[in-house]
UniProtKB/TrEMBL annotation:
UniProt name for this protein: 3-dehydroshikimate dehydratase
Keyword vocabulary terms for this entry: Dioxygenase, Lyase, Metal-binding, Oxidoreductase, Pyruvate
Location of the VOC domain: 405-542
Segments of this protein annotated with the region Disordered: 574-595
Amino acid sequence: MRKSIATVSVSGTLVEKLEAIAAAGFDGVEIFENDLLACPLPPEEIRARAADLGLGIDLYQPFRDFEGAPAELLPGNLRRAEHKFRLMERLGADLLLLCSNVSPAAVPGDDVAAGHLRLLAERAAEHGVRVAYEALAWGRHVNEYLHAWRLVRLADHPALGVCLDSFHILSRGSDPIGVEAIPGEKIFFLQLADAPRLAMDVLPWSRHYRCFPGQGTFDLAGLLAGVRRAGYAGPLSLEVFNDVFRQASAERTALDGMRSLIALEREVAGTAHPAVPTGFAFAELAGPGGLGGIPAALGFTRTGTHPGKPVELWEQGGARLLVNATGADPALIAVGLDSPDPAGAAGHAEELLSPILPRARTPEEAELNAVAAPDGTEIFFCDDGWLADFTPSRPPGTQPGLITGIDHVALTQPRHHFDEAALFYRSVLGLRPQESLEVPDPYGLLRSKAMSGPGGAVRVVVNVAQVGADHLPWQHVALACDDVVAVARRLRKEHPGLLLPIPGNYYDDLDARHEVDPELRGLGVLYDRDEHGGEFLHLYTVTVGRVFFELVQRIGGYQGYGAGNAAVRLAAQHAGHRQGVRPGPRPAGVTPAPL
Ligand SMILES: O=C(O)c1ccc(O)c(O)c1
Ligand SMILES: [Mg+2]
């Protein structure tokens, strides 16, 4: 379907917005009035600029506070409308969006409102303009889409139809099934926005927190399927008011919007994701100086070396780490995911605008494709072939140990790209959002979202500094094990400096909440319990460069991440860093081993 986006959804001047929108491949735009008013170009030139960029002007908006206005305001309102119709002729736009009246002065009564709508449609038709009437969720008398449709039917004019906006429909909890009762040709326009579930009034929720489809919690695929069944064949148009998008790169936001529409169309078509990853193949760390000896200290064995690159393979149980000696500072630089169909997964990623990264490869090396996650981490789609690229330094066989695999990786996002990350992991990798929360940090606030694949085989936590530091420094690899206490005992004895010290106050509070093994206190093991009795024991290493390790033990089906302990962990990490090295940004020039 034709794809459009409202100019309000991206940052910049009107011309910058149009350029970014065109570059992302959109067919059209909704011109938002504020963007036009602030633009130094006359409407004819805006029209020409859009045409040069290959963009149609699908809609001009918003026109406000018209239907049901007190009688004495009608002449002035019609005068306003005439001006806008003439503007639209200059702009080459033939569809005007009318928002339902929000004025406290608006009078109730469907007959009056429908009469006004008819009048507006008659005047519009004289200019070759059509009017799409939208029920704002906070409209004074009209705030339900089916009410807007009743008025359109009453007004009964060919130049009048409805504009459906997913936010106004779904934020109020209206049943979207009603869209199927509206004849497709009377749905003049469809605006799409998602939103996180927030307990707040609909107006600030709409004006500050909308996001692209797939970034929030609304069932947009269900709504779109219904609108299509109704026979709607017009554009899918993103209309997102979002405080972060207003600051972010317009190019990146527009591209992300396009990705969201492609993913939505695939979801409606039932081709959402062909090859959801089934596990972690490896985590690759830039490890100059061997990561401070942490892999060996944690019980990993070096099992192979790459013949052509300074990369070592370290294994324990089902966990594999690649330690890449390039780079200035330790960091997590790539993640390998087991894929049932690596080629299909790579093709899917490309369709979702995540290009396969260029990679130097000798003919003997396994063919392996990677895409860049929003934070720059390279995500590889793997089958078992890549292991053969390493020259074994041991006889083959599983390296026994207490660690059994990789439980999750936690990545930190650039400040403006948290929603982009959620959409990337959901649409490109097929992971589902699981847990979203805010964690206090001594110097700010961290926002965190866990995404996971079927059965929790792949778990990715994305973090972003909500307030405070511009770019959160730390990433981590969480290793699964069957007995965290045994690991902790051994580390305490053999590498006492490796474990992150946890304050006694934490254990006093833990004792107040749960009866736990008193040994946890001395070992620095943290604890959580869920409402089903599932338990979580975990511990942290100190940080090297940007990265640290967590060891986790899940008991009784626990699905979380010990979120309640994250604030204590962050404070302990900051304390450690004030005594030692401060964390730096991701080292420049580190290229993941293109296996
Ligand atoms: O917040 C608003 O005023 C507003 C304006 C135009 C729209 O299409 C909309 O959905 C909301
Ligand atoms: Mg709207």
